[in-house]
Amino acid sequence: MRRPTLLALHALALAGCGAATTEVVEPELDPLAPTTLYPMGEGAQWVYDVDTGGDEPPTLGIFEVVYFNGNDRRIANVRGMNARGIVSHGDAIGYRIERGGIRHLATGTWVLREPIAVGASWEGMGGRTARVTDIARRVEVIAGTYEGCVVVEESGGEDGRVVTTTYCPRVGPVIIESTLRSELTDRTIGTQARLRSHDPG
């Protein structure tokens, strides 16, 4: 006697129980994995309020994934749209997802590198050293409230700039701060971008 196939058993179950409800369960993601902290999905977009610290109100900064192929990604800022609805972009920044983290393609340096833990460090862009200073930050921005965020501080570069980025799981960079101390005026000049909205693509 032939055993009923799995497909036949499934059909019988549907016939006896009426319409079946399929529950979709999202896979568990490691909240500290680089690709969870910076998920560059196809078509993903981030919109920021960018404050340059002057008297002018914050401006909008819009960034989106413009290239998605295998482990390679490119992200560019949106510069505008013409009368025909065609969006123009600035120069794209290339990234590559590798075993162990995410690299900045042009320099070969790491953007995020495993293991993500307080005190972990790696060579960053511009001769700076990136160091993880927090892995449990809670942040509130217009886009929402996020828990378990990772703060990476980059310092020590030739230009003296300090760049602090707060990455939140499943979202990416939520707060980006850049500060530079002027030797001429002995003042600190800073720019801060805070996430206004996020579309995962």
What can you tell me about this protein's structure?
Helix content is 8%, strand content 51%. It is mainly beta. Residues 1-21 have low confidence and may be disordered.
Q: Which tags fit this structure?
A:
single chain; 201 residues; mainly beta; YmcC-like fold; 13-stranded antiparallel sheet; 2 helices; 13 strands; 8% helix
Q: What's the overall geometry? A: globular
Task: Return the CATH architecture.
Answer: Beta Barrel
Radius of gyration: 22 Å
Uncertain ranges: 1-21
Q: Profile the largest sheet.
A: 13 strands, antiparallel
What is the fold named in CATH at topology level? YmcC-like fold
Helix content: under 10%
**How many DSSP helices?**
2
Mean pLDDT: 86
Compact summary:
The chain is mostly beta strands and 201 residues long. The protein has helices spanning 6-17, 34-37, and strands at residues 45-51, 59-69, 72-81, 87-89, 93-98, 101-104, 110-113, 121-123, 129-141, 144-155, 162-168, 172-181, 188-199. Strands 1, 2, 3, 4, 5, 6, 7, 8, 9, 10, 11, 12 and 13 form a 13-stranded antiparallel β-sheet that branches.
List the helices and strands and how they pair.
Layout: H1 6-17, H2 34-37, E1 45-51, E2 59-69, E3 72-81, E4 87-89, E5 93-98, E6 101-104, E7 110-113, E8 121-123, E9 129-141, E10 144-155, E11 162-168, E12 172-181, E13 188-199
Antiparallel strand pairs: 1-2, 1-13, 2-3, 3-4, 3-5, 5-6, 6-7, 8-9, 9-10, 10-11, 11-12, 12-13
